[in-house]
Amino acid sequence: AEAKSAELATEVLRLAHAADRWSEVDEAFPGVESEGGVPALVARDIWWNLALWHRDRRGDEGSAEAAIERALGYDATNREMLTALVEIRRHAPGRPLVDALLRLSDVSDEPLPLHREAVVTATDHVGDASLAKTIAEAMLDKAKARWASEGSDASSLPATSASWAIDVLVKIYREEGNSV
């Protein structure tokens, strides 16, 4: 039965592409998925393709975001999907964007700019100094480790990121009434 489900799901994906019948897949797939037996990679691909259809063809970012999250349920560290999620969430900065930026930073070759954006979002849009402080501290740790391992100069990304994180942390500590 599982092999038949896998074949059926693979065929659904192929036919949906060939016939451009994503509205039918969008309507039917959640029920098929809930019955079980759909291989994880096939489910991931169907949700991802539904996300692209919602975003690119329908202009429905809310449905695209939900489909990306479903796809990430099968492949939590997929950089392409996390990048798409961040791009969508940038249109309404808030805690969900912060979370997506941090998830993407975990798999990114350049996590420091993502941490910086997360700190700014936590401060300016979420209004959560504690969250911003936690992210800035993690950013500082990553910047220091990278700076030390690469022997970077003072104008390098790790050095400027460390400096920026320190400035943010000093500001937060002062606002909290702590002496620095």
SSE series? HHHHHHHHH
Return the structural class: mainly alpha
Beta-strand content estimate: under 5%
- Rg over C-alpha atoms, rounded to the nearest angstrom: 21 Å
List the quaternary state of the chains: single chain
Write up what this structure looks like:
By secondary structure, the protein is mostly helical. The model has no long low-confidence stretch (mean pLDDT 91). The chain is elongated and about 60 Å long. It has nine helices and no strands. It has helices spanning 2-19, 22-34, 40-58, 61-72, 79-89, 95-107, 111-126, 129-150, 157-175.
In short:
This protein is an all-alpha fold and 180 residues long.
